[in-house]
Design a protein that fits this description.
It is a single chain. The chain is built from four helices and seven strands. The two termini are about 15 Å apart. Pfam families: His_Phos_1 (PF00300). This is Phosphoglycerate mutase.
């Protein structure tokens, strides 16, 4: 039986001193800590025997994801150069983009432009179904389309996909429960973490889901590698 694993990586920490809800806005880049996170996760992916031999790396087109993916790509290629493997080439896919959000440009906090001013709070009618933006069903569907396409394109191999918290968790929740709807406050997708999903190439059945937080030390978290689910 042939199986393909896709490693969904959340981008690293963003430099955002004004606490803006940046969503799909341009110009939000990794902080210094975020770059260290990406470097740490890149080394984890390049050196861990369980994640060797990556065939392709994709990224959301947003700045923070592109920067994270490029750093990871560079880390892997540095190892590959030593082992005389062909270098990876970073590609972009819009299906990995952050969820649409009507709060984009608002600030978390007080003052002009704050989230809670001008009646914005009225959009928060149900945390399980984001009345403030793109539905969880839509998010999970586009990530599933991406994943199934990669399984067909790279059977038996490993892929890296750098994305965002909502797309990664919505898809995972869909695979584990049969529905993408969830409480956004209960997600388990830390910055620069790796959610690895293994698919049977023929049936697309999920064979296992693992989670790693190699960059946890950069942000004061303690978890390094935890298997949290297996189907």
């Amino acid at each position: 039986m042939s199986a393909t694993t896709i490693h969904f990586v959340r981008h690293g920490q963003v430099y955002n001193p004004e606490h803006v809800i940046y969503e799909r806005l341009p110009g939000f880049h990794l902080s210094n800590t975020g770059r260290r996170m990406a470097e740490t996760t890149g080394r984890f992916l390049s050196l861990n025997p369980a994640t060797q031999g990556v065939a392709a790396i994709y990224s959301s087109p947003l700045d923070r994801a592109k920067e994270t993916a490029q750093i990871i790509c560079d880390e892997i290629n540095a190892t590959r150069q030593e082992e005389e493997h062909d270098p990876l080439q970073l590609a972009f896919d819009n299906r990995l983009i952050e969820a649409g959000n009507e709060f984009r440009g608002k600030r978390i906090g007080k003052g002009e432009g704050a989230l809670w001013r001008n009646g914005n709070w009225r959009l928060l009618t149900n945390l399980m179904e984001p009345s403030w933006g793109e539905s969880y069903q839509s998010i999970a569907q586009r990530v599933r389309d991406f994943a199934y396409e990669q399984v067909d394109r790279y059977p038996g191999q490993q892929i890296i996909a750098v994305s965002h918290e909502s797309p990664i968790w919505s898809f995972r929740h869909f695979l584990e429960t049969g529905r993408p709807e969830h409480n956004m406050l209960m997600r388990g997708t830390a910055l620069a973490s790796v959610t690895s999903i293994t698919f049977d190439d023929d049936s697309k059945k999920v064979l296992g889901i693992t989670y790693a937080d190699p960059a946890g030390g950069c942000a004061g978290r303690n978890t390094l590698f935890t298997i949290v689910g297996k189907l």
